C-alpha cells in the first residue's frame, strides 16, 4: 500500500467520530461509491452503458427486507444474512437477464436496460407480497440512533473495501484485459477467440453482487422502501451512478470513487444551502464538469499532472 492509501484509510476510520453530526450522510457516501464502482464495470471498463443496473440495487433491497420480515431471526443476523441473500438473488437475476440482453450492442442494449428498470418499478408497485405501491418498512434498529449510524457506516465501509479490492484484482487479471478488449473493439475481440457474451454476463453478475448486497443495507438505513422512489428509482440512484462514474473518470478504478465523493458532498451542500434550487444547481454542476472535464476529474488530473497521477492507472498482469 502507498502512503496515500494509509491516509485515506485513517480518514475513513476517523470520519464518523470527527463529524458526528454527519454520520448518516457519511454512511451514504459508501453506498454512492459502490453504485459508481459497480456501474463502471460495464459502463467504463467494458463500454456498455447500462441504464438498468438499479434493478439489482432494488432486488437486493427487497430481498433483504423480506428475509428480515419472515426469517424470525434477531436484527443483526437477519440483516447480514439478508444482505448476502440479496446479493445472491441479484446475481441469479443478472444471469437470466444478461443472457437475454447482453447479446444486444450499443444503444439497443442501453434502451433495453432502461425499459427493464422501468418495468421493475412497475412490477414491484403491483406486488402485494412486498407491499405493492404502499412500500415496505424495514425493521427498527435495536440500538440508539447514534449507534445505528456508526454501525451502518462501518458496515458499508467494509463492503466498499471488499468491492474496491476485488475490482482492483479483477482489472489486473485476464478478465480486465478481456472486458477492455470488448470496449475497444468487440468484433476484433471475438476474432481473437474471446467469448465476449460470457465475459459480458460475468461482468454484469459481479456488478449485481455488489449492488444487491449494498441495496439490502441501504434499505435499512433509509427505513422505508418505495418501489419507484427508492428501490428502482432510475431518476435518482439509477442516473447518479452513471453521473458519478463520468464525473470522476469512467474506465478507471479511482475515478468512480472521486466522482462519487465530489457528487455526494456537493449534493448535500446544495440541499443545505440552496433548498428549492438544489436540482438546478446540481444540473449546472454536471454541465460544467462535462464541458471542462470531458475525461472526468481523474482524466483531467492525469493530463495536467501526468507524472503524479499516471501511476494510478490499472495495468493488467503480464503473466501468460
Structure summary:
With 320 residues, this protein is mainly alpha-helical.
Number of structural domains: 1
Q: Strand sequence of the main sheet, in spatial order?
A: 1-2
Number of strands: 2
- Using the CA coordinates, give the radius of gyration: 19 Å
Order of helices and strands: HHHHHEHHHHEHHHHHH
Give the rounded overall mean pLDDT.
90
Unreliable stretches covering 5 or more consecutive residues: 311-320
How many DSSP H or I helices?
A: 15
Describe this structure as you would to a colleague.
This protein is an all-alpha fold and about 325 residues long. The chain has one domain. The protein has 15 helices and 2 strands. The protein has helices at about 5-20, 25-45, 55-70, 75-100, 105-125, 145-170, 175-185, 185-190, 195-220, 225-230, 235-250, 255-275, 280-290, 295-305, 305-310, and strands spanning about 135, 225. Strands 1-2 form a two-stranded antiparallel ribbon.
